[in-house]
Write a structure and sequence with these properties.
This protein is 32% helix and 19% strand. The protein is α+β, with helices and mostly antiparallel strands. The chain has a nine-stranded mixed beta sheet. α3 (88-101) packs antiparallel against α4 (107-117). The radius of gyration is 18 Å and the shape is globular.
Amino acid sequence: MEEEEAPVEGEVKTPFAAETYAAEAMAADMDPWIVFDSRRTPRSEFDAWLESNGPSRVDRFGDEEGGVSPVGWIAVLGLNHCPNVGDVVGLQESWEKLLASGRPVGFQTVKELALNHGVLSGKWLMHLDCGFKLDNAWECVARAALDGKISLAKVSPHNPKGEGKQVICAYNQNFTDESEVIRLDGVIRATGIKCPLTYKPDVYTYLGIYRNNRFKLCPTIYESKFDLECVPRRSHIINKVTNLEVT
């Protein structure tokens, strides 16, 4: 399953290599998605769509005997969704040249490649067990996308062969704009979600950099924990590159 490279509280770290996660991610992206496009589909149809496609009930691999196809992702395209992934092919070619050169690889190197090729989108990730909490969190994020507060939200379907947790992703346009990243965290928290979040730039996904990678890079660059005790309640967001809290 894509985006499960950053263990969260209570999650058992697995020994799989980054290549395993990358292969699973590619397979999910290539399989059909269940999509609600708020730009084209009447809002009145959303509740029925949401009820029929809850992530705890949709099976990742479908049912061949029953004629049900595999499902890669369940997604809501927001009113302001405007896909702009940048030059991914050029990014990957530059990456291969970089590796062949023997130069050291670090966050700044990857960021420079992302900026050069316009691959700047990223997402906050929520890892939850299959069941009520997952379905409720997904409904909160999906409605925020429906209202145009999130450009794209997606959730992985239930995978009985997987590691147990499913992931919700909420996207923004520019991972290098820290204020934009913080603003998206605020949108997610405003829906009522209080679980830990981690933030991953898409450049890592396109380069196949997941946890347990040979470069020893952490593929998530922010983490957010919601403080229930402070008044007003708010997130504490740590920049994992600098190890400093952001405000």
